Amino acid sequence: MGRSDPKKPIFALKTGLAIAIVSALLFVSGSLSYVGDNIIWAILTVVLIFEFTVGATLSKGYNRALGTISAVVFALATAQISTWSGEWQEVVIVVSFFIIGSISSYVKLYPTMKAYEYAFRVFTLTFCILLVSGTSDFVQAALSRLLLIGVGSCVCLVVNLCVYPIWAGDDLHKSIVKNFRGVATSLEGCVTTYFQHFGYERISSKILVYQASDDPLYSGYRSVVQSSSQEDALLAFAVWEPPHGRYKMLKYPWSNYVKVSGALRHCALMVMAMHGCILAEIQAPSELRDVFKNEIQKVGAEGARILRELGNKLEKMENLSPDIDLLDKVHEAAEELQMKIDQKSYHLVNSEKWAAGKQPKEFADLDRLQDLKEDDMKPNVINSLSEANLKPLFPPLDSNVTNVSNHPSMVHWGSAEDMLKHQVQWPSQLSVLGDQILNVREVKTYESASALSLATYTSLLIEFVARLQNLVTAFEELSDKAKFSDPANPLEAKEAISLWTKLLKCVGIK
């Protein structure tokens, strides 16, 4: 874990350093009367508010300060009221516990107060502890504890800022760049695997129950689909951080990073659906896929190129080139695919059903028999169908396929523990008309569905291209608000290199 993420052991060392610094106050507690037994408040403060990132520490420190100061004020007022009440002092304190505990617990459930939940917890805890400790030296105890909490907070802030600071904004930035590349990898994998003719011989059960898997095609889009909560948490901490590193603006537009990630997630859902087509039980035959292979591969390659280009631009914090339309090539490829679908659309439907007219007798007989109730079925009704009536109107797309269970698109399930049990083959319901009628139904239904699965896959890919415009728009809005740098001009760079070469030659340096 330390090698994969060096920030984690560094955070652990920083936490230990902060606790050690605060604990050193024990050595001077003899000379400072207000420290005494209250040193535990400083240690508790470090343990509770020292977080992984600077923004999280600032947010939690603010909440703790807000809750503590409010609790001290309310506790002082309650202590004074209880002193005036004389023999009813204990009753006043108990009633105040009930009122404060109920109100604070109710208010923190309000949606807009979610960011201050920790402040409400600190407020309730501090209020109760101060009143339980007694009211004789209440002011001195409250001030000493407040002072030590401030000392612990300052130690946390100094250590977190000065010793290898870990920024929530930087983590948010890197996470979104990684998601761009992950979705691009998944898109390429979906296109490549779709033409490998049922390359999934074994499907991990983790994929089928949406759990983490080492399959790069699956993990690429999964990370961005489920990253919403993590990004919201990083955003809540990033807004607390001061200008730093490459993020030197006050009120840096971190919310626009989340918008870009949301637009990317909107595109990743299409990749997820395309992967679902690859994992489906019903698959289009390889001959039909090859008809649209070149166009689909071109769209997939261009889409992945755009995602990687946007990811690189975001990583470098550069604007898009104003002279180049980033979506021009992918739109052209999508148009070519759409034109190919229009020209070859007869491959995607049952062309024998196009002509309007009387329904073929074979289908009429089958539909009539299916509508009959099982109790009303007579043996002579089934026997009345001849062999000619039971033959399919057209042969299967694959001559070796007689039913769904024998089709090569059906994956082979392993018996290992990490593999899902054999799924029920489609269709799973048995017909009361006999196996012969069932085979006719299965083959004809499967032929139509298998062709439609290819239509579904291509429509998802075209929809992915359509959603790229929202992603580019969100990126341009971010680059404008964050004041990204302009991309370097290759011609100007070459001229600068040539000029420096001539100058070095003039001074005798090769």
Explain this structure to me?
64% of the residues lie in helices and 0% in strands. With 510 residues, the chain is mainly alpha-helical. It folds into two domains: 7-162; 168-510, no CATH class. Helix 3 packs antiparallel against helix 6, helix 4 (89-107) packs antiparallel against helix 5 (117-132) and helix 13 runs antiparallel to helix 14 (328-343). Residues 354-360 and 377-441 have low confidence and may be disordered.
Radius of gyration: 34 Å
What fraction of residues sit in β-strands? under 5%
Helices and strands, in order, run as: HHHHHHHHHHHHHHHHHHH
Residue-averaged pLDDT? 76
Total strands: the figure is 0
Gross geometry: elongated
Number of domains: 2
Low-confidence stretches: 354-360, 377-441
How helical, in percent, are the residues? 55-70%
What does the main sheet amount to?
none
N- to C-terminal separation? 47 Å
Helix- and strand-based class? mainly alpha
* H/I helix tally: 19
Quaternary state, please?
Answer: single chain
Q: What's the quick description here?
A:
Helices cover 64% and strands 0% of the residues.
List the helices and strands and how they pair.
Blueprint: H1 7-23, H2 39-49, H3 54-84, H4 89-107, H5 117-132, H6 138-162, H7 168-194, H8 205-208, H9 216-225, H10 228-238, H11 254-279, H12 286-291, H13 293-316, H14 328-343, H15 361-371, H16 379-383, H17 387-390, H18 435-481, H19 490-506
Helix pairs in contact: 1-2, 1-6, 2-6, 3-4, 3-5, 3-6, 3-10, 4-5, 7-9, 7-10, 7-11, 7-13, 9-11, 10-11, 11-18, 13-14, 13-18, 14-18
